[in-house]
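Exercise 7. Predict the structure of Glycosyl hydrolase family 59 catalytic domain-containing protein from Oppiella nova.
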Amino acid sequence: SNSPMWWMLYDHNPSGAPSGGENLQTGNYQKFAVYLATVAKYAADHWNLHFVSVEPFNEASSMGWTSDGSQEGCHIGSEAQQKVIIYLREELDKRGLNQTMVSASDENTYDGALKMWTSFPDNVRASVGRVNVHGYSYFYGARDKLYDAVHKQGKPLWNSEYGEGDATGLPMAENLSLDLFWLHPTAWTYWQPFDIPGWGMIESDLGKGTTAAVASKYYVMAQYSRHIRKGMQIIGSEKAETVAAYDEKNKRLVIVTRNLDKSQNITYDLSQFGRITDGTVS
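Solution. The predicted structure, encoded as tokens:
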């Protein structure tokens, strides 16, 4: 959820508070949870759409959600998040959605996510089924420390949103590699494949419903997504530039290495695999 319903907010504005501060009324913490759980239940009953998880927040610790903003958003601090998470877990369970996880907190940086997660007491962490984070600190931030804190609690971790305006796709490839090397997410999600030049892998005018050029970024992503397939396990590599994925069923290893602008000689140590057959290079 980008924001609770307008009438749940102090200033009745789903873009944020005037100063970017706390905006969800204390008396509406549970009502917000009821609203989210009710939507999830309706989707299951009427559309046969079963949510794996419900995320009540979107970059909610940010003070950038202000009433004059052009996008829905709401600052919700740690104490309020804790209460909403507990209420949401209860409301999902009341509706028989015991298998639907509460995910949190989709903070926009790795350090922000670490700060929020470690601020939660054990009972709140127990109510969270998966930790989500956005990758908008790009090349910076304690990815490894966030992973350690989340993994210690036995929770899966997603990078649930990444995007930037470079159509070459090279910054995306670098950050994807850094995430897989340090963050160990079980899902990595790009912002929108169809969007304005730079942000979109396919240039689009969403208002007019038209598409234009296919950016290099699309083909860069394809080097990962066409070869690293569902069910493969990301395995360790010596350097962050290289992503290695193993298909146990088909005994297939995929290696994707990011180009560092200059020609380079790279050696891969595959001695631990035992028997190696000839591979292909693309």
